Amino acid sequence: MTNPVKGPVLDRVFKSLGDNPNSAIWVAVTIAAFKGIFRPIFTMQDKHTDPDKKKSAAIREFLTEVIAIPVYIATPVIIEKAIINKVFKNETAHVLKNIKTTSKFLSVCLSTALIPAVCNLIQPPIMAAYKKSQDAKKAQIAEATTPNTINKPAFTGKLGVKTQNPLIGKINYGMRVGS
Amino acid sequence: MSMNIKSMMKNEGFAKFAGGAVGAVYATTVLKAAVRPAFIMADKKNDAETKKYTATKEFLYQAICLGIAAAFLPFFNRGGFQIAKKHLQGQTELAKITKFKEFKEFKKDYKNIEALSKTAKEAYVKVNGGIELGSFIGSIIGLTIVAPQISHKILHPMMKAMGMEKKEDKNVGKPNEIYLADAKVPTEKPEKINVNA
């Protein structure tokens, strides 16, 4: 019995990728999808960065790739419908195939240049909303912990010395059994 | 100018390059190295020093990505060819192709491909698909898994060597450790008092 993964399935993948005019788009989309998964994971694993900054950076990286995917898909479609189909409508089928393949490649390049601009438009309000929710959470935590910390003496640099009454220490010490 | 673009769009050789995944990976990486730092520098909200630091870091990251792509893609393309080359067996028109280099030479001239019979062309497409699959896998592993790890290891030393980054403060993100490190723990024992005295 032949292995379906090594046999027909792989052959079908080869056939589909071997003569695919959309390779440029698919490779860009695939890289963006995997970056969207791995980059935030790697960022969160960084032990040298502040946890709040890490979380914010991971969200921003994830958003960048989420924005990149539709841009990579939509730009070639828009370029083809708006320009290629109008300018090159009288070309032969073979030449038109070449033109469309090249236009997809150039559209992916254009998308790469457009993505930072689109991110600059979409990301700031989302990140601002995230920061606002984080600040609200911090304020809530601070409010909840305030009564416990209000009576705590200020840290003086010597643990357990100035924070307690010297008399209490002496009295307790003397009250120990067997001392 | 428009004629140049039109003739470039129709060009068979450029279409072959544009139709492959390798070309897209290199082109997007080079563009990212140019465009992303430019966008960072154009940002009016941040101060000049921060912009310079971030733009340099982004440029270096993309340069590392380009190097990794250049190292990974030929290796994975060759691997893809090795897996798919079984389809060349029994094809008399493609019998002279046994090595990856020979396949690349054959692929360069589109007239060679046009001249193939239907079955030979199918075999050619499958082998080409194997190489494309190699490009996909190589670029995913290289650009999304290896590049972040390598850049994490070498980007900071590079930035430091360029004088753009100060020595790392090991206590960043560890407020409790700073607190304890700075604290002087009392070593003297409390004074003994005689309660019977």
Summarize this, please?
Chain A is mainly alpha-helical and 179 residues long.
Describe the structure.
Chain A has 179 residues and is mainly α. Helix content of chain A is 79%, strand content 0%. The model of chain A is unreliable at 173-179 (pLDDT under 50). Chain B is an all-alpha fold and 197 residues long. Chain B is built from eight helices and no strands. Chain B is elongated, with a radius of gyration of 29 Å. Chains A and B meet through helix 1, helix 2, helix 4 and helix 5 of A and helix 1, helix 2, helix 3 and helix 7 of B.
Quaternary state reads: heterodimer
Number of domains of chain A: 1
Strand-residue fraction of chain A?
under 5%
User: What profile does the largest beta sheet of chain A have?
Assistant: none
**What class, by secondary structure content of chain A?**
mainly alpha
Helix/strand-derived category of chain B reads mainly alpha
Q: Which bin fits the share of residues in helices of chain B?
A: over 70%
What summary fits the major beta sheet of chain B? none
Q: How far do the termini of chain A sit from each other? A: 86 Å
The rounded Rg of chain A comes to: 31 Å
By DSSP (H or I, 4+ residues per run), the number of helices of chain B equals 8
H and E order of chain B: HHHHHHHH
Radius of gyration based on Cα positions of chain B: 29 Å
